[in-house]
Amino acid sequence: MTNAKTILWVSAHPEPQSLTHQLRRDSITHLRAQGHEVLESDLYATGWDPVVRASDAQLPEGHRFRVSADVRQAYLDDALPAELRTEHEKILRADVVIVQFPLWWYGMPAILKGWFDRLFISGFAFGKDPDTGKRLRYEQGPFTDKKALVLTTLGDHPASIGPRGKSGEITELLHGILHGTFAYTGMSVLTPWALPSADFTKDYDQVRESLLKKLDQLPTETPIPYRPQFTGQYTDEWELVPDIAPGETGLSIHIDNTDPSVVRGG
């Protein structure tokens, strides 16, 4: 197929017979049947270690561990542990990065947070161009050729993650990963797919079809229009300039709502 992509599917659920994994298996089968190449990182199945350690930088015993600088140097020296290099290769190959997880305490499971902590390191996912000093983040990030999609199941009622919901509108609830991780590294971020009241799912076929429909839109869906950092919309202190959304506050001001043709997250 002409729109065939390489997709990295990262999943984080400890139970192979869970709803999360059933959806993962059916979705990957669907994507492959459409001609996409799907790379997989099932973090619990592979026993992923989420903890950043001095061994990530291959430091000798007794050396003071400067986390960012030492891991960056290990990356530049091609001296990272094999499991990190393997995951980096998957990320680099991917046109689309999909992360799937149950929402625990309003965040991702620790094993997935540790996947980002160990892999999205300076020099690889952000930093500065060593020759020009250009900051590599947001619209200048190293992953501007990639899309990102979050799939999550959660216990909240549907209205709870809506615009007036107690848990917060879904793109704001997931702001840390959507904007602070994916958009920060340059990726185009798609509106997340969320299944509320997941523990009370009665019609699996309906849920599966909803997710497959979302996946079918990967080539054409309009990303969330997060504001670029380096075009004059932010001050040198990374604060939105006063004449944009004057008087407004909160996470939503970092989405450019000036184009009425853009479909918003929610």
Task: Give your account of this protein's structure.
With 266 residues, this protein is of the alpha/beta class. It has helices at 19-33, 43-46, 67-76, 82-93, 110-119, 170-173, 175-183, 204-216; strands spanning 6-11, 37-42, 96-102, 127-128, 135-136, 147-153, 188-189, 193-195. Strand 4 (127-128) and strand 5 (135-136) form a beta hairpin. The longest helix is centred in the first third of the chain and has 15 residues, at 19-33. The chain is globular and about 55 Å long.
Which characteristics define this entry?
single chain; about 270 residues; alpha/beta; two-stranded antiparallel ribbon; globular; disordered C terminus
